[in-house]
Amino acid sequence: MEKESCIVLKHMDKSFGKHQILKDINIEVPYGDIYGMLGPSGCGKTTTVKIIAGISEATSGEVLLLNKRMPDLELMRQVGYMAQSDALYGDLSARENLVFFGQLYGIKEAELKERIEEVMEVVNLSQSLDTSVLNFSGGMKRRVSLAMTILHRPKVLILDEPTVGIDPLLRKNIWNELYQMTEKGTTILVTTHVMDEAEKCTHLSMMREGMLLAKGTPAEIQEQAGAKNLEEAFLYFSGEREEGEEVRL
Ligand SMILES: Nc1ncnc2c1ncn2[C@@H]1O[C@H](COP(=O)(O)OP(=O)(O)OP(=O)(O)O)[C@@H](O)[C@H]1O
């Protein structure tokens, strides 16, 4: 029997007032995937992932996470959501931020202490555990946010532009860590507007103006477009698509 998908969007629409932002979005994210949503600024990536995370609600259509309908407060505990802007308390240290967040999730004191050290190692910030976040660079804050997102070992990780402002070497480390997390069963959804990050995903959706242009593995998308790389493929699908038509792979 075919395994159910971790995230399913069926005919999902989203409007703000009279303005329709997302149009008939259909996506299935397999368990253990690193699924990428690729598209230019303003195409609707954040709106999509916020609906999946249960922070926002679709106007119509179906949104299933772990086979249950979203939004659902209990399900939200299984999700780690990292927004584009960092939600950190500047006057607290990294450790204090993590303790606060871990307590919200009900992680017991001894486990929390150990886990904080683990996650800060993942993002290569062990040396800065007790430094006030005010003194962190943008990239360091991004890394603390990532550490916070994975602290409670969520089954599903939703990362909105996770590596913006992070240098190439550390970006590589973070991607390695994401791969390892999928091997342990985590499913990861990541938004990006950077092609080389999209190439690292197991599956991808290409988006433009609130619609899906193409879906598949990066190789399938390139092949379908007859393109040398994802950038060319994106341009191909942007130009070739008839109004409202989704390219199926
Ligand atoms: N709360 C809101 N009310 C009205 N319009 C909104 C709201 N949130 C987003 N939008 C609009 O929805 C569209 C898609 O925005 P969204 O943030 O989802 O795009 P994005 O692809 O994530 O872009 P970026 O990478 O720049 O964040 C934009 O036109 C934006 O102005």
Automatic annotation (TrEMBL):
Residues 7-234 form the ABC transporter domain. Gene3D superfamilies: P-loop containing nucleotide triphosphate hydrolases (3.40.50.300). InterPro entries: AAA+_ATPase, ABC_transporter-like_ATP-bd, ABC_transporter-like_CS, P-loop_NTPase. GO terms for molecular function: ATP binding; ATP hydrolysis activity. It comes from the Bacteria. Keywords: ATP-binding, Nucleotide-binding. SMART domains: AAA (SM00382). PANTHER family: ABC TRANSPORTER G FAMILY MEMBER 20 ISOFORM X1, ATP-BINDING CASSETTE, SUB-FAMILY H, MEMBER 1. This is ABC transporter ATP-binding protein. It comes from Aminipila luticellarii.
